[in-house]
User: Which sequence fits this backbone?
């Protein structure tokens, strides 16, 4: 390679890497603050999202993500008695471990209907996870509310988070006998 | 200023043209073209490196550095970076093989493919490292050994099984492209396996967008990555498929006549339409496919050995290639029938006036490598006395098209040397015949001003290598050396 090309290529590459690094530092700084606000306050923040999710019927809810601790959702278990669901209240799902962190959701039930889904814990490991969580959780919440079950599609680019979310959700649904 | 055939004598000083070496006076008509070409080549190099840096910057900009603090995180991060860089190199390789005119006219087809080859192993190593590091990194985070982690990834994570298959295909492609392995198999086998690259790239795409958090929906990184993947695919589709098909339909080439030049060597004359756009490319090559049973899937790279002769108003005319029986494929060409349709791709390469940087030009060819020189001699600009042609062969009969070249040299005022005879068994690497070599001749004896000339070399690669070495020794700058391989 000619000297001119080598020097320009080195400078250009260094510049690009520097810009990337700088914006990365910025992202990391703001992330923690955003994360705290977002995960704690999922319900209110997600209130406005009205995603087009027509809750199509993939069985992603029952696949169970990696290292998941359970609640392999026997979807038909609703038949087991218990007037609890009718009465309503909040039910916590299992804490599902993933490689990106723990996911746990809580559902609010009124008169047999899921009226709200709150994320108690969302994936937060590795750079992008928090951002993914913040992005995916509102979509999942609105789809779940619409479908009234864990039978909703996973969110593109957030497969692991979605799977864990829906697994935990299924456990909560089971607990609520829904 | 007529030029004469100058056989170099076995003893004494070679006969020089009567007018002697003309004083070197550059008019610089090619200087601007040369500068622009180098600028384009540099721009390509900078773009390639920048794209590599950008693929890492995507991850940096996502705060990757800050997030990879634990040992598992660090290994995973390295794996992610390796995957990004590896994919970027794969895309660069595809672009280098896409025959994009901008790349071709800046560095030439040969060098583009050379870079393509050079990137093969690094990109495979990066992709292997990607798979390995991710399996180890994820495994550590979940308390699994890498093998169980890999199995879990395959079974449980959507699209990951495709990524595993993709990696296996990449390994197959690179292994079959290694010179040692390639020699053992016919070209067609290598080519068929090479086509798996497309399958490998396609199979690797889903997991990048669905599993890789970096390219999650709604991120600008996702758009960037999509854009470079789509642009690469579009370039391949356009330049490797759409363009050739269009050219084939536009020119409607048909075999007109096959005539014998020498034992095992034939002229193939083709007639076609709108040949103007094939003209003026002296020395550049085309890829020909003769659409006859058993032949159509053989691509043959040959340059024209004669510029189109126009006979009609719509550019209806004839072009000619000269072919030697080099392999199974070209042996069949000797028996081509009149009326056979011909598909054409090209022109490609930089063995043309587009590569000129000096007013003077020297053309050195051996065997069948002489034929592209004939086309170049026909149309590359030079003033009388500023061009020298050296033809090398075992016998006069092997100086294919020698008569035509002699005639062209006469018309245009170029100096011509015929260098015939066997090699010196004592130093088989000499590019000269034995007698001339023993007499101690060098390139400067034939072309005293060679250091101020563009030197075009075409012939068997080993022979061409010695010529290029001799030219460098005579002070010819690397930028002035133009070499085209014909023994593919």
Assistant:
């Amino acid at each position: 390679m000619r000297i001119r090309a080598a020097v320009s290529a080195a400078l250009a590459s260094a510049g690009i890497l520097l810009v990337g690094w700088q914006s990365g530092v910025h992202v990391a700084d703001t992330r923690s603050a955003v994360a705290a606000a977002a995960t704690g306050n999922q319900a209110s923040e997600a209130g406005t999202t009205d995603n087009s999710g027509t809750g199509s019927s993939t069985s992603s809810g029952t696949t169970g993500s990696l290292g998941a601790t359970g609640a392999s959702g026997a979807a038909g278990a609703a038949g087991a008695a218990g007037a609890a669901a009718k009465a309503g209240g909040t039910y916590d799902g299992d804490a599902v471990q993933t490689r990106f962190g723990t996911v746990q959701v809580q559902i609010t039930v009124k008169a047999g209907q899921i009226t709200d889904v709150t994320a108690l814990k969302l994936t937060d490991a590795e750079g992008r996870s928090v951002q993914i969580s913040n992005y995916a959780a509102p979509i999942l919440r609105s789809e779940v509310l619409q479908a009234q079950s864990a039978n909703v599609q996973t969110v593109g680019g957030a497969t692991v988070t979605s799977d864990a979310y829906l697994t935990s959700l299924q456990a909560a649904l089971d607990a609520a006998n829904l | 200023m007529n030029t004469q055939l100058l056989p170099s004598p076995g003893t004494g000083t070679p006969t020089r043209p009567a007018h002697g070496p003309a004083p070197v006076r550059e008019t610089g008509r090619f200087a601007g073209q040369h500068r622009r070409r180098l600028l384009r080549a540099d721009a390509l190099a900078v773009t390639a490196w920048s794209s590599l840096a950008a693929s890492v910057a995507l991850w940096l900009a996502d705060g990757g550095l800050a997030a990879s603090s634990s040992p598992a995180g660090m290994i995973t991060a390295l794996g992610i970076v390796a995957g990004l860089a590896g994919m970027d190199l794969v895309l660069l390789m595809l672009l280098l093989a896409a025959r994009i005119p901008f790349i071709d006219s800046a560095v030439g087809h040969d060098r583009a493919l050379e870079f393509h080859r050079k990137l093969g192993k690094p990109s495979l190593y990066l992709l292997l490292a990607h798979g390995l590091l991710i399996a180890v990194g994820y495994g550590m985070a979940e308390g699994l050994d890498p093998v169980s982690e890999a199995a879990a990834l395959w079974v449980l994570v959507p699209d990951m099984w495709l990524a595993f298959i993709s990696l296996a295909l990449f390994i197959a492609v690179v292994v079959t492209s290694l010179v040692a392995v390639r020699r053992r198999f016919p070209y067609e086998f290598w080519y068929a396996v090479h086509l798996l690259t497309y399958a490998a790239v396609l199979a690797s795409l889903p997991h990048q967008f669905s599993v890789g958090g970096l390219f999650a929906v709604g991120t600008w990184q996702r758009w960037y990555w999509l854009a470079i993947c789509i642009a690469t695919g579009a370039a391949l589709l356009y330049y490797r498929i759409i363009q050739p098909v269009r050219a084939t339909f536009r020119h409607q080439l048909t075999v007109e006549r096959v005539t014998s030049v020498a034992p095992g060597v034939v002229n193939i004359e083709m007639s076609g339409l709108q040949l103007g756009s094939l003209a003026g490319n002296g020395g550049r090559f085309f890829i020909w496919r003769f659409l006859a049973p058993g032949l159509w899937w053989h691509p043959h790279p040959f340059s024209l050995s004669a510029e189109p002769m126009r006979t009609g108003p719509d550019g209806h005319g004839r072009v000619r290639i000269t072919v030697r029986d080099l392999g199974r494929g070209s042996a069949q060409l000797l028996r081509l029938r009149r009326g056979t349709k011909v598909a054409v791709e090209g022109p490609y390469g930089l063995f043309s006036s587009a590569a000129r940087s000096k007013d003077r030009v020297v053309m050195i060819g051996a065997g069948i490598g002489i034929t592209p020189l004939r086309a170049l001699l026909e149309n590359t600009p030079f003033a009388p006395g500023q061009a020298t042609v050296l033809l090398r062969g075992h016998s006069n009969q092997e100086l294919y098209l020698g008569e035509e070249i002699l005639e062209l040299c006469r018309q245009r005022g170029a100096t011509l040397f015929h260098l015939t005879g066997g090699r010196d068994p004592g130093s088989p690497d000499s590019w000269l015949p034995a007698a001339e070599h023993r007499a101690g001749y060098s390139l400067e004896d034939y072309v005293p001003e060679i250091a101020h000339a563009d030197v075009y070399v075409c012939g068997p690669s080993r022979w061409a290598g010695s010529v290029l070495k001799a030219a460098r020794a005579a002070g010819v700058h690397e930028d002035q050396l133009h070499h085209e391989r014909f023994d593919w």
The radius of gyration of chain A is 20 Å. The beta strands of chain A are 89-92, 96-98, 101-110, 113-121.
